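User: Quick sanity check before I run a bigger batch. Here is a single chain. Can you write out its predicted 3D structure?
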Amino acid sequence: MSILSGIGDLVDAWLQVEPKGKPPYYRHRAAANALTRRDSPINGTRDFLAASYAQIHNNWLAASEAGLSRQSKENWRWKRHLDLGDGNKSPELKLERAIVGACGDDWSNQMPTASGLVGSAANRRAAVDLVLREDPSTYSLIELKVASDTPLFAAIEILMHGLLFVWSKNNREKLGYDVEAQPVLAANTVTLGVLAPGSYYDGFDLATLASALDSGLNAFGKQHELGLGFEFWELGEDYAPDSRPELTQSAISNRSAVWSVM
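Assistant: Done. Predicted structure follows.
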């Protein structure tokens, strides 16, 4: 069981994804390609977000009633992970560590969001790649990509973390979370984003998705007295694998929107 059980089906229904491959179908490149070619708008985003939020809550209730819920106190903790295991050649992890190391204490990484919520073995690897603290009440939760998956897949990944943020903030006392240990839960303005080199987006046009997510999150956020939004970003031109810290910092400072939300 996962705290996100059932949400993949909700995503496929919301995006009207063709059943190609194994479900959930949005994970496959064919879904991102189809969305790129799609002319019709994406409707019902706020309702989809509300249904997904309710699914998260119901999954947690079921686990709690079964005595399985033992949420980790590490969820939403502010930590900076700079070490990379010997032999780890993941370009995303290398870039993630480089960004946090170069850009200062307002950046955190690998922030757990769901460990233990529906059982000790479930969602242990669910974590936000990068978190930027712009001020004590304003944060960005970021999914970092270099060459893996698709922009659609990445958008849904960070969207799920965003929904878990709203649910965790609303249920903070029940979960035993503390804003001193988990300062991100004090945020009232949060942007969800995908960050990648410009080449990652080649061949895709997901402007319609970006707009639907941004407007849908804005409406959903108002229901929870939060400012929520969405953006796809590309790293600045200074980005290169194994860049010097000053170039990595410049690539972050000069990041820009890929498909501006309307």
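The CA atoms of residues 1 and 122 lie 7 Å apart.

User: Great, the batch can go ahead then.
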